[in-house]
Amino acid sequence: MSPDSYKIPREVTRVTSALEKGGFEAYLVGGCVRDLLLGKTPKDWDVTTNAHPDQIQELFEETFYTNEYGTVGVVNEDVDDKTLKVIEVTPYRKEGTYSDGRRPDDVEFGVSLEEDLARRDFTVNAIALDTHKGHVVDPYKGQEDIEARLLRAVGNPNERFQEDALRMLRAIRLGAELGFGVEQETFVALAHNAVLLGKISKERIRDELTRTIMSPRPMEALLHMKHTGLLPHVLPDLLRGEDIEQNQAHSFPVMEHLLRALQHAADKDWPLEVRLAALFHDISKPECRRKSDKTGDWTFYGHEVVGSRVTRKALENLKYPKHIVEKVVKMVRWHMFFSDPDKITLAAVRRMVSNVGQDNIWDLLNVRRCDRIGSGKPKEQPFRFRKYASMVEEALRDPISVAMLSIDGARIMEVTRETPGPRVGYILHALLEDVLDEPKRNTVEYLEKRAVELHNLSDDELAALGKQGKSRSEGEDAKIVEDLRKKHHVR
Length: 491
Ligand code: ATP
Ligand code: MG
Description:
Number of helices: 25
Structural class: alpha+beta
Radius of gyration: 29 Å
Number of domains: 4
Bound molecules: adenosine-5'-triphosphate, magnesium ion
Shape: elongated
Oligomer: single chain
Helix content: 40-55%
């Protein structure tokens, strides 16, 4: 193929030309070559060269080191396109022994292109392309594997996974992104070396998990992780639902239901938080499952409360950022809302919005859609959904949080002579309950008068009212979990 048949941006050829003019070799390599051969637009551009790190830096005005392996980031000024702003140039290198199953003990420069390609993970990622002559270097027959849509380890797969165990998750993630299968011998090596994933940092695992979940095929990918034994090192909680049959309303065991819910979120191209909430929403059904004495069928009381805690632990363990954890936990906690638009009151919808928060309400409705589709139920009739959505719109116009009340803590203390402390919080929450029932009550006159009445209640009476915000506080959730444990003598 001629170089013109690949669409290579000027910013990239500027870098390879400068290297060649400086008397060095320069090739595109890795994901960008793979994507070009697949006819896709690469996400980033990696150049490899026989120049050493200091020689690379001398050739370009603005550069910086991007990692400890000699990769130099070449900055293209006056370029807005994020994928072209920095072109990474990596010297050919060979990696020493891997004694920890994660990183090479040392790296060696001054080796050949062929040796550099040998250290790469999969054959489809070990192809180099000379952008000027259009000449391809492909010692591991990566082009054949691209044709066959297969991920095959470069060299001996067992050895390659023992060097760096993260490559196992990369295989599954790349497979999910590209729609490729894993070649037989490489697949067997996944199963054989799965336990080595225990050596890999949570952050690296999380990044691969996120990309897997954001791919078009997360369900299939997570099933591969299950079959190869990688899943216990990534999402151990999910496995507990494997053979947990549900009640008559559900067609699938818990784990399959969660995977189907996640897949629906991916089919809809919904964001990470929705996908995670879909994947976790019933995570604690296994430990909350009991036979009903009355019907003889399974019940799952409290699974959303226990599940929100399990979700928090799992996501924190994977070092997800706090804003993601909080949002997903909230949606898991409140996924059991009642949504029949013919029977529900506006006050109930207001409470729902108040619980999950205005910023999360629309995403929560999408989690509900995933839940439905993931149970094998037919699609929600659009007019019912629209009716419910319009009730949510209406509820959003009313005050739904303490901050939206026409009174604040300071004013409450003025009119009631309460001293600072939990009683002021209880009064605020009790006032919110009143306003959730009837938004017209959100006036200074009403709230001040009602605050004085509340002030006259005993501590116990007031606490009971203030907490009515239906287990809205963490403290109340703790009590629900406690009661569940007592009742069922668990944990
Ligand atoms: P994408 O950019 O779409 O994630 P990519 O293949 O470019 O895919 P990068 O993480 O950017 O992935 O890595 C660039 C190249 O470096 C890969 O194509 C591969 O050749 C090599 N590589 C990356 N990580 C590893 C690894 N853990 N072991 C061996 N080679 C790796
Ligand atoms: Mg890349």
